[in-house]
């Protein structure tokens, strides 16, 4: 049986945006934690580090409308890759994308059922979503956001915890990048220890 008074939720990467978003209004979730959280809307609309101009979104939205019409006429949905399929040409790419290729598109973290694709016309719906728009509503329930000190996505968690209020804690793992927190024991060990303590403290009857 599930104890409705002891429900915790954990989100990693994009689900580090989805989980707080759900918890904003779902009071059944009593403790919320994230690891290497990403607001997927912000990432796609503004680019990593918010270096992407507004014209990119406008072009994507034009494409989305055309693609919806094409699909209605029976054409196959157009897709883009989440992670680069090959390391070729990534020498100057942000660390996140180099690591994503090494993790998701190799035996390290890849799966035979993964298509590594997202449907391009869904950008018009993603653009309406905001992971942390009402993150203050999680309070007074506890929120823990864990990041690597070297993660190029860490700004998402820093901003979210600042916006959330006194119930929120930002916990930094020194030396770790975004994807280091997925499977490298040096960084996963202190991460899981912190999560264990967090859930034990806040979900123990």
Could you describe the 3D structure shown?
The longest helix has 19 residues. The radius of gyration is 18 Å and the shape is globular. The chain has 205 residues and is α/β, with parallel strands linked by helices. It is built from eight helices and six strands, in the order βαβααβαβαβαβαα. Strands 1-2-5-6 form a four-stranded parallel beta sheet, sandwiched between helices. Strands 3-4 form a two-stranded antiparallel sheet. The mean pLDDT is 96. The protein is 40% helix and 15% strand. Helix 1 links the parallel strand 1 and strand 2. The protein has two domains: 115 residues, Alpha/Beta hydrolase fold, catalytic domain (Rossmann fold, 3-Layer(aba) Sandwich), CATH 3.40.50.1820; 79 residues, Orthogonal Bundle (Arc Repressor Mutant, subunit A), CATH 1.10.10.800.
